[in-house]
Amino acid sequence: MLRGQSEAIVAQLKQAIVGQDKAMRQVLTVFFAGGHCLITGVPGVAKTLLVASLARIMKLSFKRIQFTPDLMPSDITGTEILEEDLTTGRRELKFVRGPVFANIVMADEINRTPPKTQAALLETMQERQVTIGGKTYPLEQPSFVLATQIPFEQEGTYPLPEAQQDRFMFSVRMDYLGEDDEVAVIKSSTSTAETELTPIMEKAELLAYQEMILGVQVPQELVEYVVDLVSASRPESAHAPDYVREYVAWGAGVRASQYIILGAKAGAAMAGRTAVVPEDIHGVVAPVMRHRIGLSFRADLDKVTVEDLIRRLVEAPPARA
C-alpha cells in the first residue's frame, strides 16, 4: 500500500521538479519516518519548490521562514502581546502563534541567522512544542522542519551548532542538474505551461503510515552492524580504523544509529517489504551520517571529505571488538 502511494507522490513531484530523483526519495523517506531534514544545495536547484510541492501533495499546512541575520527567536515561535477588552477594559496576555505552528516549516537558508535564533527551533524539533512565558503549546501533528542551507561559507552565514545538526534525521544534497535536465527546466519555466499537483495523501493517512513503519522488522545482525558502523566513526572507539583516528575530530552519536534503523524501516516499507534488508541500511547511511562527522585539520590538508570516510566505512565494515 505504501509502495504505491510513495510512487504516486514521486510521480507528482516529477511534474514540478526535473531531476533530483534521489533527493526527492530521501526527503520522502524522512516524511514517512517522521523526522526532520536538512537540505543543502546551491541557489536554484529547487530546494524550496520540493518542500512546497510535498506540502501540497500531502494536504499539509506549510509555512516558510526566510532566515536573515536580524531574525529574532520570537519571529519564529511567536510572542505574547497585551490585549485589552474594549467592553470591560480588562487586559490579559495573549499568545500570538509564530510560523512554527504548521505541519511543515521550511527554514530557508537557516545558516544565515545567528545561533540564538537557530536554537529557537530546537524545542520544536525535539519536543514538538513551544514554551513561552512558562506555558507550553503543543504543535499539531505531523510536524516537520525542513531547513535549507547554502553549502559554502561567506559573509553573513553561521555554521549550525552540532547539537542542532544532530536533530535533523537526514542531510540531503541537491546538486547542479545535468545538461539535459537543465534544458528541460529552462523550456518549462519560460513557457506558459502550468503545473497542477494533485493532493494524494491526507494527514491522518500519513500518521498511520508513520505508525506502521515502526512495526517493520529489523534482523538482530543488522542492528549490530549499524551500531558497529556508527561506533567506528568515532576516533576514540576501540575498533575505529586508522584513517578515522587520523581524519575525524568527532564521530556520529547514538542518534545516527537510531535514524539509520528508522530510515531503513521507512525505505523497506516504501519498497513494499515488511523487513529490512542490507540495501535499506546502505541507502540511508550517507544522509544520516554526513552531518554528524567532524573532520580534523589533517583531513582538510589531505582533501579528504566526509563522503570519502563514509564510503570507506561501508565498503570495509569494522569488526566488533
Descriptive keywords:
single chain, 321 residues, alpha/beta, Rossmann fold, Helicase, Ruva Protein, domain 3, five-stranded parallel sheet, two-stranded antiparallel sheet, 15 helices, 11 strands, globular
Distance between the termini: 41 Å
Fold-level CATH name of the largest domain: Rossmann fold
CATH class of the largest domain: Alpha Beta
User: What is the overall number of helices?
Assistant: 15
Structural summary, described in words:
The longest helix is centred in the C-terminal third of the chain and has 17 residues, at 254-270. The model has no long low-confidence stretch (mean pLDDT 88). This protein folds into two domains: 2-190 and 199-206, 3-Layer(aba) Sandwich (Rossmann fold), CATH 3.40.50; 214-315, Magnesium chelatase subunit I, C-Terminal domain (Helicase, Ruva Protein, domain 3, Orthogonal Bundle), CATH 1.10.8. Helix 1 (2-16) crosses helix 2, helix 1 (2-16) crosses helix 3 and helix 13 runs antiparallel to helix 15 (306-315). By secondary structure, it is an alpha/beta fold. It has a five-stranded parallel sheet. It has a two-stranded antiparallel sheet with strand order 3-4. Helices cover 45% and strands 17% of the residues. A hairpin with a 2-residue loop joins strand 6 and strand 7. It has 15 helices and eleven strands.
